Amino acid sequence: MEDENKTMGMNRLLTILSEGADEMRRLSSHLNEQLRADAMNVQSRFSQAIDIVNSMEATGMHQMPSQGHTTASGSPGGSFSGSPSEGSERIVKKRKGTVKRTINVQGTVPDDGQPDTALVPDDGFSWRKYGQKSILNAKHPRSYYRCTFQKNQNCEALKQVQRSDEDPTIFVVTYQGEHTCTQHVGKTQSLEHQLLIPMQNESDEHVMINFNNSNNPIGTHESVHDDQSKIVSPSFSISSTQAGLRSEIYNVFSPSSTSFGGAFSSGGAFSSGGFVSSGASDSNYLSVFQSPFGADFGGGSSFHGSESELNDVISVPHSSISAANDFTVEQPNFPFDSPDLFK
DNA sequence: GCAATTTGACCTCG
DNA sequence: CGAGGTCAAATTGC
C-alpha cells in the first residue's frame, strides 16, 4: 500500500522500456530478415529489462514451473503450456468449484497414425495419462493427465488435452490445480512455448505465438515472475495469418509474459499495454498477455490461490481488450480480473 | 519386472 | 439421464 509510488515509478520505467521495444519493433519491420534478427535482439534486451523490473516488483511469486524433461505421457514433443499465467488463457470454473485454465497450443502437424499425445508440445512438466474420452460434438477425444509426481509428492495438478476441431494442429490444453511438486529437473524449463490466440473476428485472423526453446541451453537468466512462469527460451516466433497472408517474427526472445507486452506494446495486432488483439469484438478467446504495465500484473498473477480454489469464473473476454491499457489489476493477485466480461 | 498407456466401466455433476 | 471425469485392469514398451 505504501508502495504506490514505487509502483508508479516502475510503471513509468516499464512504459519507457516498452516504448523503446516498440520503436525497435517498428524499426525492424523495415529491415530485411538479416537485420531484423539483430533488431529483434536489441528488442529482446528491452524485454529483459522489462522482465527484470517486473520481477522486482513482483512480490508474490511462488514456484516456477519447471523443466524440460519431457516425460512419458504428457507431451513428447515440444513445449508449451505449463504456465498458465501467460498467453491466451481462459480460466473457467467447470464443475463444482474447480477452476480451469485453458490455453490453446500449436502442436505438431498431424501425422496420420500418430496419437495426439505425440503431437502436443511439452510444457516442462511430467504428466501421466490416466484417461481418454471422446467428447460430445468433438471430433477428437480428450486426454486426461495428472502430474507424474502425484504419488510421491501429492501434486494435484491435472491437465486435459484436446485437439481442436477446426485446426488439428491446435490443441486446447486445460490445466487444473497447481503443481506442488518440485519438478526441477534439468535446465530447460519451459513455459508455454506455444500459444495460440485465435482472433476470429471479421477475418479469419490468427496470431500464433510459437516459442522455441528446444535447443536453448538455458541460461543464466532466470527470472521469476508469476507463480509459474519462468523464463528461458530466448526465442520464439510470432506469426499471424490473415486470409492467406502470413507474417512472422522471430527471435523476439523472452517468452516471459511480461516481456511480451513490452516487446509488442502497441503494434499491429497488439495494442499497447497488454498483448491483445486489435479490434476484437466478440470472439471466444481472450488474447491478453500479461501487461508489463500493470504493476501487479506480472508478479502477482498467482493462480496459485489454491488456498481455497477460486470459485469464480475468471476469464478475459476480448472486449476487455480495449481496456487492456489499464490492466492494472485491481486485485493484485489476479491477472485476469474480468469476471463477467467473458461469457 | 516395472512403469506408462490404453480402454471400458464406474462415478459425479448438472 | 447424459456428458464429462476418474478408476483400474489389461496391455504395451523399455
UniProtKB/TrEMBL annotation:
<keyword id="KW-0804">Transcription</keyword>
<dbReference type="Pfam" id="PF03106">
    <property type="entry name" value="WRKY"/>
</dbReference>
<keyword id="KW-0238">DNA-binding</keyword>
<feature type="region of interest" description="Disordered">
    <location>
        <begin position="62"/>
        <end position="97"/>
    </location>
</feature>
<dbReference type="InterPro" id="IPR003657">
    <property type="entry name" value="WRKY_dom"/>
</dbReference>
<keyword id="KW-0805">Transcription regulation</keyword>
<dbReference type="InterPro" id="IPR036576">
    <property type="entry name" value="WRKY_dom_sf"/>
</dbReference>
<dbReference type="GO" id="GO:0003700">
    <property type="term" value="F:DNA-binding transcription factor activity"/>
</dbReference>
<dbReference type="GO" id="GO:0000976">
    <property type="term" value="F:transcription cis-regulatory region binding"/>
</dbReference>
<feature type="domain" description="WRKY">
    <location>
        <begin position="116"/>
        <end position="179"/>
    </location>
</feature>
<protein>
    <recommendedName>
        <fullName>WRKY domain-containing protein</fullName>
    </recommendedName>
</protein>
<dbReference type="GO" id="GO:0005634">
    <property type="term" value="C:nucleus"/>
</dbReference>
<dbReference type="InterPro" id="IPR044810">
    <property type="entry name" value="WRKY_plant"/>
</dbReference>
<keyword id="KW-0539">Nucleus</keyword>
